[in-house]
Design a protein that fits this description.
heterodimer; A: 2 domains; B: mainly alpha; Arp2/3 complex 21 kDa subunit ARPC3; 3-stranded antiparallel sheet; globular
């Protein structure tokens, strides 16, 4: 699908730009690499969910989505925990 | 609220809040009271959602030009912030952000919490494949006001993640990426007192964080969807999304406005005020981390 190719191209573009800026030792390269790596992981999750057939269950408005809700809770908890750990660790190092 | 500021600020804050809340509540009321049995196609016959009809009646030529300017300004600001240049009043200033472990962790934390919060309600679809009811949008001004650029970039990534997990990922998500960045960036730049202890900061919050941020984000994404859609003046023969113009301007854009405005108006300001002391104590407040070069 053109949509998917466009998104893959966008993410690859971000990775290339991030890598070039990283080679040039620009601080913002870390952020762009986060964009790119985050995009790759997101696309992987997206295609896994497509092939798992999760989206087939979302057929219209106000469809209950327990699988998505479960993923959401996992992402929030892992994100909060990892973020808290990283911030605390960085503060201790200082 | 502080007693040092002139009482006029408090009055302005109350008036701005009332106007913004009235717009958001009217949009929500008209949306909920619309006859859902008739289908969105009736919009073309003048029987659509009243609030959305106002947007659509401005005309496609109007939206092509005005939306295009808004989109261009938003894109330039996004790229400027990436390049280390920011807007201070009407002046451009170079700034330095280290993008060290704390900044990256803050970005990732905001992305995970916002993304997870968004796709938790992914089943509450409004326009299949394009938008859904998103209470987590209340987080965007909080992240922007407290964490600055890491918070704004985190919301952009979070929206991308949510699009994927909710099954809405498309080239339109690129517009959503920058649009959600702006939703956090506008309050970050224009709400000057992150502690929210003054009437002025509440006035700035309702004007910029709720009204202008919501409208800017909605028009930004709406114009992108229109430009790459089937009625695009440029890409009509090779559309990248399938949303017709009347759905973009009569439903999608006004819905995003009221969804953003209603949740941010009621939730974001008190939560920001409550979290500010913790962000400051942990060294995450953007004002303590950014360095201006000129």
């Amino acid at each position: 699908m053109p949509n998917d190719y466009g998104l893959i191209a966008f993410v690859v573009f971000l990775l290339i730009v991030g890598a070039i800026l990283y080679a040039m030792r620009k601080p913002v390269s870390r952020l762009i690499l986060v964009f790119g790596v985050g995009g790759v992981l997101t696309l992987i999750a997206y295609f896994v969910l497509i092939f798992a057939g999760v989206y087939d269950n979302v057929t219209g408005a106000f469809t209950p989505t327990p699988v998505l809700n479960a993923f959401a809770v996992i992402v929030i908890v892992v994100g909060l925990g990892a973020g808290y750990y990283a911030v605390q660790r960085a503060r201790v190092k200082k | 609220m502080t007693s040092k500021e002139p009482p006029s600020y408090k009055l302005v804050g109350v008036i701005v809040a009332i106007i913004v809340l009235a717009i958001a509540l009217y949009g929500t009321y008209s949306f909920l009271s619309w006859n859902w049995a008739t289908g969105p196609g009736d919009l073309l016959a003048g029987k659509g959602w009243t609030f959305g009809q106002w947007f659509y009646n401005l005309g496609l030529d109007f939206w092509l030009v005005v939306g295009g300017v808004i989109w261009l300004v938003g894109t330039i600001l996004f790229l400027m912030e990436l390049g280390g240049v920011t807007l201070e009043g009407l002046k451009l200033r170079r700034f330095s952000l280290r993008w060290d472990a704390v900044d990256i962790a803050t970005t990732a934390l905001c992305a995970a919490v916002y993304g997870g919060g968004l796709f938790a309600t992914g089943g509450l679809t409004i326009i299949p494949g394009f938008t859904w009811i998103r209470p987590a949008n209340a987080l965007t001004p909080i992240f922007g006001i407290l964490f600055g650029l890491p918070g704004a970039f985190g919301t952009a990534i979070g929206n991308f993640i949510a699009d994927a997990f909710a099954g809405f990922l498309s080239v339109g998500s690129i517009g959503g990426f920058v649009g959600n960045f702006l939703l956090a960036w506008v309050p970050y730049k224009f709400v000057k007192d992150a502690s929210m202890r003054s009437g002025k900061s509440w006035a700035q919050f309702y004007l910029w964080g709720v009204l202008i941020g919501s409208v800017w984000c909605a028009i930004y994404i709406g114009w992108w969807l229109y430009f790459i859609g089937p009625q695009s003046p440029v890409l009509a023969s090779f559309p990248l999304t399938g949303l017709p113009a009347f759905l973009v301007w009569g439903w999608f854009t006004p819905f995003v406005v009221i969804n953003n405005a209603i949740v941010t108006a009621f939730v974001s300001a008190p939560v920001t005020a409550a979290l500010f002391p913790y962000a400051k104590k942990w060294g995450l407040y953007w004002g303590d981390r950014i360095q201006y070069k000129s």
